[in-house]
Specification:
The complex is a heterodimer. Helices cover 0% and strands 52% of the residues of chain A. By secondary structure, chain A is mainly β. In chain A, strands 2, 4, 5, 6, 9, 10 and 11 form a seven-stranded mixed beta sheet that branches. The termini of chain A are far apart. By secondary structure, chain B is mostly beta strands. Chain B has strands spanning 4-7, 10-14, 19-25, 32-38, 45-51, 56-59, 62-67, 72-77, 86-93, 97-99, 103-108. Classes of the chains: A mainly beta, B mainly beta.
Chain lengths: 112, 109
Amino acid sequence: DAGITQSPRYKITETGRQVTLMCHQTWSHSYMFWYRQDLGHGLRLIYYSAAADITDKGEVPDGYVVSRSKTENFPLTLESATRSQTSVYFCASSHDRIYGQYFGPGTRLTVT
Amino acid sequence: GENVEQHPSTLSVQEGDSAVIKCTYSDSASNYFPWYKQELGKRPQLIIDIRSNVGEKKDQRIAVTLNKTAKHFSLHITETQPEDSAVYFCAASTQDMRFGAGTRLTVKP
């Protein structure tokens, strides 16, 4: 499980601020994903990446930006944070788009 | 897109009893069905999965069954133990993974 890490683990920010959540994996997985977890909604896909420089939208992409310049890193940026983006964010990675996704420890983000 | 419904939302059982969690999905093209366990404050962890060419899969006390005709699949935990207490998520996938809302399982000693 140490193969995928996230930072920071906890973050409090103000409405309108830009914030970046980091994700790093050491398994050389091709695919990386960002999910948000909210009570009653399970996990919802924000963005995913199939390889370096290839990203695509998921179910709830609005208000988020991603990049993937290196295979091992997949940062998620909230360009102008809103209270509705208060959530727990999980990064995941896998060899395949569908099978066997492995999750990072999560980042709890609070937007005040 | 795919829609996954999971029931019940909470489940309480006595230690040693069995627990069953059910999920239904909407997209008949879905072909991969994983189950994740999430302990309080921890990451979701894959515990078992099943692919659409298989009807049932077992791993020790855990089993998953799939009925593609009815578009539902279930997680069965036998001889439950207190450490099985967690939130369990089902998911269904064609291109993207869609998760159920989760079931909070409590195993009472």
